């Protein structure tokens, strides 16, 4: 079982991730230009490589959603990014500062459950 933890100055939230996929992407600021004589020029910015982790929760308790939303609110109001830890992988992630972004959601079950919530953690 994969465990995801978010921590900031206020609280810690730990979630079990029973359903895949936990998607990892790489991001960079490299620029590719094609010159007039059809040659490719690539400008590589060392140190700009970042990791992006995406998770879609099929179902989440409203209390966990509210706690997750609190991290997003605090990062925007204080400018302090939460730290992400993921265990249960072949290579664990520990205390990676991330920018948290949350997608749309459906509220079901008399407002006790959130459905189809997509969350993105971008290394900052």
Structure description:
- The protein has 124 residues and is mostly beta strands.
- The chain has one domain.
- The chain contains 1 helix and 10 strands; from the N terminus they run E-E-E-E-E-E-H-E-E-E-E.
- A hairpin with a 4-residue loop joins strand 1 and strand 2.
- The relative contact order is 0.25.
What would a concise description of this structure say?
By secondary structure, this protein is mainly β. It has one helix at residues 62-78; strands at 2-7, 12-17, 22-27, 31-34, 40-43, 50-61, 83-87, 93-102, 106-108, 113-123.
Please specify the SSE layout and strand pairing:
Blueprint: E1 2-7, E2 12-17, E3 22-27, E4 31-34, E5 40-43, E6 50-61, H1 62-78, E7 83-87, E8 93-102, E9 106-108, E10 113-123
Antiparallel strand pairs: 1-2, 1-7, 3-6, 4-5, 6-10, 7-8, 8-10, 9-10
- What is the mean predicted local confidence, pLDDT? 89
Oligomer: single chain
Beta-strand portion reads over 45%
pLDDT below 50 for ≥5 consecutive residues: which ranges? Answer: none
Radius of gyration: 18 Å
N-to-C SSE series? EEEEEEHEEEE
Shape, per Cα inertia axes:
elongated
Q: Number of DSSP strands?
A: 10
Which structural class do the helices and strands define?
Answer: mainly beta
Q: Which characteristics define this entry?
A:
single chain, 124 residues, mainly beta, eight-stranded antiparallel β-sheet, two-stranded antiparallel ribbon, 14% helix, 54% strand, elongated
């Amino acid at each position: 079982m994969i465990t995801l933890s978010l921590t900031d100055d206020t609280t810690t939230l730990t979630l079990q991730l029973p359903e895949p996929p936990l998607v990892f992407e790489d991001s960079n600021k490299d620029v590719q230009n094609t010159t007039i004589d059809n040659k490719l020029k690539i400008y590589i910015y060392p140190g700009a490589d970042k990791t992006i982790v995406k998770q879609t929760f099929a179902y989440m308790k409203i209390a966990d959603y509210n706690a997750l939303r609190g991290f997003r609110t605090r990062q925007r109001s204080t400018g302090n990014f939460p730290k992400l830890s993921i265990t249960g992988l072949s290579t664990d992630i520990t205390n990676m500062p991330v920018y948290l972004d949350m997608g749309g959601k459906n509220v079901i079950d008399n407002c006790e459950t959130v459905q189809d919530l997509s969350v993105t953690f971008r290394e900052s």
